[in-house]
Amino acid sequence: MRVMILVCGEGLGHTSRSIAIGKELASAGHDVHVGAYGYSMELIQRKGFKAYEIPSEITLVGKAGSLNMKRSIVATFKRGQFLGLIKIRKLLKRTRPDMVISDSYFMGMVSARTRGIPCYLIVNQSNMEEFFKGKGVSSKILAEIVRISYTGLFKMPDKVIIPDYPLPHTVCRKNLEFQDKTWDKVLFSGPLIGKTYDETTAEETERPHVLCTIGGFGYREPIFRKVIEVAGMDGSINYTLLSGPGVDPESLGDLPENVTILKFIDDQFPYMKASDVVIAPGGHSTMMEALSFGVPMISFPDQKHSEQQNNALVIEEDGLGKKLDYSTSPEDILKNIRLLIDDEKYRNKLTEMREMAIELNGPKAVRSMVEELQKGR
């Protein structure tokens, strides 16, 4: 079976879970092709997949820790990315896949439908109109247009795959809203992560250990620097911080002895397995990775980013970690780190989530589903 996976490149979470599915399908002997763009495409090529450059679908606009979805949609229309449908149709005509898996890349789903190709959509949010709540009359109108548009789009795929734990354990549950007919074709696959807990050898680090994936560039820099300050307050806890390629670690000055700064990790799973706490924004994929490895989280969701805010809220409500914000003091951050390291109830809950992820085996669940559906055709 020839499979085309089309990836939204806005954030590497889409990329990592698409790679997980691609590896699973390829291991079963299927011919896997991947369409992506930007750094996402580079990463996919390094993993050895047949990759094709596709047009980006949405331009994200924001500042000071806030995503402005209204301006993002306007910028997307101005750049004319939606004309990329023609390019995607040509790609599908040239590669002739038996099926398309589209990870939040709606042009791919629409293009597959117009060519009569079975399509499976991966999403972890369906209530995009949440971005516009409480932002004036024009935003309310735009929110309604977005709601109607996505209601129609979610009718198109043969299956909608939610890369999360099944209800009631679903972390992205506050971001899901479908009509009844769409719910009938929803699969909660379980986490789709690039490497399982048992496949991973832990990095050699001194424990307790905290992995921080916040990054030190742009509007997240204050949190990054605050974590360094927190590390200096308690030398018994060790930290690995990912600064991102745009930050020179030497520009950060003298660092506490218990801090290691890395620009980038191509494989962060060994560090995750060696960690007692993960500090991250509110991205869904990082949360799935941490929970699958049984590690509690401290989440700093982007301001006014409703999806991340909801994810972080569920993490706290379900006893899987803590939701903090940009104004949280270093003293309170350290207090919460110690709590997650020392409190047995968090360790027990996270062990349950790790074992559940192993049992669900998300990539295998997706492969089994699409093989069965394609066999029926």
In brief, what are we looking at here?
The chain is α/β, with parallel strands linked by helices and 377 residues long. Helix content is 43%, strand content 16%. This is Glycosyl transferase family 28 C-terminal domain-containing protein.
Task: Please characterize this protein's 3D structure.
The chain is 43% helix and 16% strand. With 377 residues, the protein is of the alpha/beta class. The protein has two domains: 2-190 and 361-376, Glycogen Phosphorylase B (Rossmann fold, 3-Layer(aba) Sandwich), CATH 3.40.50; 209-357, Glycogen Phosphorylase B (Rossmann fold). The radius of gyration is 21 Å and the shape is globular. The strands form three sheets. It has a seven-stranded parallel beta sheet, sandwiched between helices. It starts with a strand and ends with a helix. InterPro entries: Glyco_trans_28_C. This is Glycosyl transferase family 28 C-terminal domain-containing protein. Belongs to the glycosyltransferase 28 family.
